[in-house]
Design brief:
Blueprint: H1 14-28, E1 50-55, H2 66-84, E2 88-90, E3 94-95, H3 100-109, H4 113-130, E4 141-142, H5 146-161, E5 165-175, E6 180-182, E7 187-188, E8 191-192, E9 200-209, H6 215-220, H7 230-240, E10 242-252, E11 258-263, E12 274-277, H8 284-288, H9 294-306, H10 309-312, E13 321-329, E14 336-342, E15 353-356, H11 362-371, E16 379-380, E17 399-400, H12 411-425, E18 428-434, E19 439-440, E20 442-443, E21 453-456, E22 460-463, H13 491-494, E23 495-497, E24 504-507, E25 511-512, H14 514-517, H15 521-524, H16 537-543, E26 548-552, H17 558-572, E27 585-588, E28 591-593, E29 596-597, H18 608-615, H19 617-626, E30 634-635, H20 638-655, H21 676-699, H22 702-721, H23 727-745, H24 750-759, H25 775-778, E31 782-789, E32 792-800, H26 805-814, H27 816-822, E33 832-833, E34 837-838
Parallel strand pairs: 1-2, 1-26, 3-4, 12-14, 26-27, 28-30, 31-34
Antiparallel strand pairs: 5-6, 5-9, 7-8, 9-19, 10-11, 10-13, 10-18, 12-15, 13-14, 16-17, 20-25, 21-22, 21-24, 23-24, 28-29, 31-32, 33-34
The structure holds one RNA strand of 86 nucleotides.
RNA sequence: GGGGGCGUGGCGGAACGGUAGACGCGACGGUCUCAAACACCGUUGAGGGCAACCUCGUGUGGGUUCGACUCCCACCGCCCCCACCA
């Protein structure tokens, strides 16, 4: 520790102060967390509460932006706060380092992606350090580290063993210019995010993780996530999209093919007047083979395949389809209904085939109108005749009609009744459909973790044995995608031998989606350098689940759902003892500037570095949290940040003149008995501690916490300027209030507060206990009571604390202002809220 | 089409059924300065009054309550997520 020098420079110079304290924190490893398995050494588990405080790791695309600053500042406030409350805090940092942007930069500049990425990481790390975050830098990792992706591959193999990772053919997004598949999130309005080309659907063999196997549990376990924003839970529920219905099997009229459909309206089965297949449905070619309709149907299927995705899925698009010439038999009534192919039927939801009930489904109704197909009412709204014509689809409630055994039931009764009947006849069953799709993790890209399998002519797809991991990403010269991953061109890499039979084999050349990396990185932080396992059960079980996770709401679905899925798989495999990774989640709002999201292309970026240079890191940290509620979007204000710098200057001036060699204790109430101004100031300090503690710990309301500290500074400054706090007792109260300001301010502005704390005679601010509240000071002997008449404020009274309700009411009635209003009128009712008001 | 959220001064926002507008920005006035900028001090919801004070005010209209920015219903206006999901 540097020797105590309690003279404070006259002017606050953030650059000097920040450099000084950052160096001290580094030298002392101030924010190193135990227990971490750094070298496989067993940890000692402290007998204190723990807090794993985690912010979503940055994607190192270049520079840290204001969103990062806000995100990491929030996490840092929580980390400091819990640390000073005596909790064991773990606050790590890493980089989501694989992925497209680095690869694109490589293609553009000719520099290898690894080099680009390492350069960007160094840059972001420097920025994070300049902002003074209390990160345990010993656990820093990048997902592109061999020591990390080796274990990503290991996790993939565990899923492969369990059948949760599988290779199968599917329709995927394909960019014809970039010659690669794209993730859904890389398709913007049907176009490739890189080149703007309209994306096509292609049938390709791809690797999927069977997240759909976990759909129900992902839904059920949400009930335990009580500390997640309702909005995020709702989004996940909608994304998983559970719907109850029935699977019903239709049969072609020649009896050859059985075609199951999924429907949420089995009660309308008798209203099915035609049958639809998705263009990609595998039976389509067989059904039309050799028929006169074959040419037309084949052409329609080809057009559908070529149509870009945005177009094909546009709701307002007119319904189109072609008749196959074939019929299927409706199992409930034996009717033969025509089979059409229509592109509004999606292959990857349900079974890719539907029964069409035009009377009670808007889309089917539109299709029936377009092609002049029959419409039959099977649900009748109250008061409506069973044969009333259907003018528009009626998807609502009503009584079942024209439906044999179901007639007379209402919709809710008919659903289970028909399901039971179908099950008895062996024609179907009640079932549940999910909107959630399996997770396509294949990427025909270079910069990702290679999928650790080989393809053997004799043995098929074979896992790379654990002891041969990692499958290292090979060096290549050309990163441009050519329809296959660039690593396919590395013959040394591709040519290998089969681990099972020893014969010649070829390596898989797809790499993994980067969301795989971010689905488990929070586990690896607990053992960042461990070379014998991905992590150690004892350690992850100590730290996890994450106590506070913070990040952007844009990850509400994908990342958060994938990470939950991974955790459940690991739980089932016995590698971890918890089924949910993030106990408490906070999603922050975005920062806008000049009315738009900050972006380089719009040229409306406010660079964090520039703000640190101009105002200091502490000012920037204060401002990003002061802008408004942390969960809300906020507009950056060039003037607003100046206000926070003025605030720190004001705190600096408040401390100046009060330097000393030692901190002081809270004054006693007796000592302040005859000093009302001093007493009021100490009271304010206590109230501020109470509010700031609640705002940070319970409410995640940082802007009001900062406001509260500002109020205390204003009160203290004013009391001193007015000479209200003179003499021993007054000076004592002022210094106590000042000390409290610095102590609370620390979590937001750690550098300045550390410096000021030292000037006041304190030592390591970051381990100083969080101030407690002396309730005795919050209790008051005199209280301001509001007096209302008919709900309107008429007067305020000073009354002694603990005065009986009747006495308070009597005093209220005696008030001249109240008399003026109630004069001559009867008082019907008196309401007295203790210590609050009289009505 | 389905789901979720939000409407408070000139602006960001505070008030978790009990004195609406804390805190900050901006604006205005003052001090400092030859001057300006900075900084500091003060005023700042609207209308009225010389005043102390009074009246009106939380998108609109109803309701519950002694009392509603807050709870309930309807409407208007914005924002976000999902979307031919059968």
């Amino acid at each position: 520790m540097t020797p105590v020098d309690s003279t404070l420079p006259e002017r606050y110079d953030p650059q000097a102060v920040e450099a000084k304290w950052q160096a001290i924190w580094d030298a002392e490893e101030a924010f190193r967390a135990e227990p971490i398995s750094r070298d496989g050494v067993p940890p000692s588990v402290p007998d204190r509460p723990k807090a794993y405080v985690l912010e979503m790791l940055p994607y190192p695309s270049g520079e840290a932006h204001m969103g990062h600053v806000k995100n990491y500042t929030m996490g840092d406030v929580v980390a400091h706060f819990r640390r000073r409350q005596g909790w064991v805090v773990f606050h790590p940092m890493g980089y989501d380092a694989f992925g497209l942007p680095a690869e694109n930069a490589a293609i553009r500049t000719g520099r290898p992606p690894e080099e680009v990425t390492r350069h960007n990481i160094a840059r972001i790390r420097e920025q994070l350090r300049r902002l003074g975050f209390s990160i345990d830098w010993q656990t820093e990792l990048a997902t592109c580290d061999v020591g990390f992706y080796r274990w990503t591959q290991w996790l993939f193999l565990r899923m492969f063993e369990k059948g949760l990772a599988e290779r199968r053919e599917a329709a995927v997004n394909w960019c014809p210019v970039d010659q690669t598949v794209l993730a859904n999130e890389q398709v913007i309005d049907g176009a490739c995010e890189r080149c703007g080309t309209q994306v096509e659907l292609r049938q390709l063999s791809q690797w999927f993780l069977r997240i759909t196997d976990y759909a129900q549990r992902l839904l059920d376990d949400m009930d335990t996530l009580v500390d997640w924003p309702e909005r995020v839970l709702t989004m996940q529920r909608n994304w998983i999209g559970r719907s109850e219905g029935a699977r019903v099997t239709f049969t072609t009229d020649d009896g050859v093919h059985e075609i199951p459909v999924f429907t949420t309206r089995p009660d309308t089965l008798f209203g099915a007047t035609f049958f639809l297949l998705a263009p990609e449905h595998p039976l389509v070619p067989q059904l039309v083979n050799g028929r006169p309709e074959a040419a037309v149907v084949t052409e329609y299927v080809r057009q559908a395949a070529r149509a870009d995705i945005a177009d094909r899925t546009a709701t307002e698009r007119p319904k189109t389809g072609v008749f196959t010439g074939r019929h299927v038999v409706n199992p409930v009534n034996g009717e033969h209904i025509p089979v059409w192919v229509a592109d509004y039927v999606l292959m990857d939801y349900g079974t890719g085939a539907i029964m069409a009930v035009p009377a009670h489904d808007e889309r089917d109704f539109a299709f029936a109108r377009a092609y002049d197909l029959p419409v039959r009412r099977v649900v009748s709204a109250p008061g409506m005749a069973a044969d009333a014509p259907v003018e528009a689809a009626e998807p609502g409630e009503g009584t079942i009609v024209n439906s044999g055994i179901l007639d007379g039931m209402d919709v809710a009764e008919a659903k289970p009744a028909i399901a039971t009947w179908l099950a008895d006849q062996g024609l179907g069953e009640a079932t549940v459909g999910f909107r959630l799709r399996d997770w396509l993790i294949s990427r025909q890209r270079y910069w990702g973790a290679p999928i650790p399998v080989v393809h053997c002519g004799a043995c098929g797809v074979v896992a790379v044995p654990d002891d041969e991991l990692p499958v290292l990403l090979p060096q290549v010269d050309d990163y441009a995608p050519k329809g296959m991953s660039p690593i396919a061109a590395a013959e040394d890499f591709v040519a290998t031998t089969c681990p099972t039979c020893g014969g010649p084999a070829r390596r898989e050349t797809d790499t993994m989606d980067t969301f795989v990396d971010s689905s488990w990185y929070f586990l690896r932080y607990t053992a960042p350098n461990l070379s014998t396992a991905a992590f150690e059960r004892e350690i992850v079980d100590y730290w996890l689940p994450v106590d506070q996770y913070i990040g952007g709401v844009e990850h509400a679905i994908l990342h958060l759902l994938y990470a939950r899925f991974f955790t459940k798989v690991l739980y089932d495999l016995g590698y971890v003892g918890f089924a949910e990774p993030f106990a408490r989640l906070f999603t922050q709002g975005m920062i806008y500037y000049q009315g738009a999201k900050m972006s380089k292309s719009k040229g409306n970026v406010v660079a964090p570095d520039e703000m640190v240079n101009r105002y200091g890191a502490d000012t920037l940290r204060l401002y990003v949290l002061f802008m408004g509620p942390a969960a809300d979007d906020a507009e950056w204000s060039d003037h607003g940040i100046e206000g926070q710098r003025r605030f720190l200057d004001r705190v600096w001036r408040l401390v100046a003149g009060q330097e000393g060699d030692a901190l002081i204790d809270r004054p006693t109430r007796d000592a302040l008995a005859d000093e009302p101004a001093a007493l009021a100031l100490v009271r304010k300090a206590e109230a501020t501690v109470a509010k700031v503690t609640d705002d940070i710990g319970e409410r995640f309301s940082f802007h009001t916490a900062i406001s509260a500290i500002q109020e205390l500074v204003n009160d203290a400054t004013k009391a001193r300027a007015e000479g209200a706090v003179t003499g021993t007792a007054g000076a004592h109260a002022l210094r106590f209030a000042t000390q409290t300001v610095v102590s609370l301010l620390f979590v937001f502005a750690p550098h300045a507060a550390s410096e000021l704390w030292q000037a006041l005679g304190g030592e390591r601010m970051w381990v100083a206990p969080w101030p407690d509240v002396d309730q005795a000071f919050l209790a008051r002997e005199s209280i301001t009571v509001a007096v209302q008449v008919n709900g309107k404020l008429r007067d305020t009274l000073q009354v002694p604390a603990g005065l009986s309700d009747a006495d308070v009411a009597a005093r209220a009635k005696a008030s001249a202002k109240v008399q003026a209003v109630i004069d001559g009128k009867d008082i019907r009712r008196e309401i007295v809220i203790a210590d609050r008001l009289v009505n």
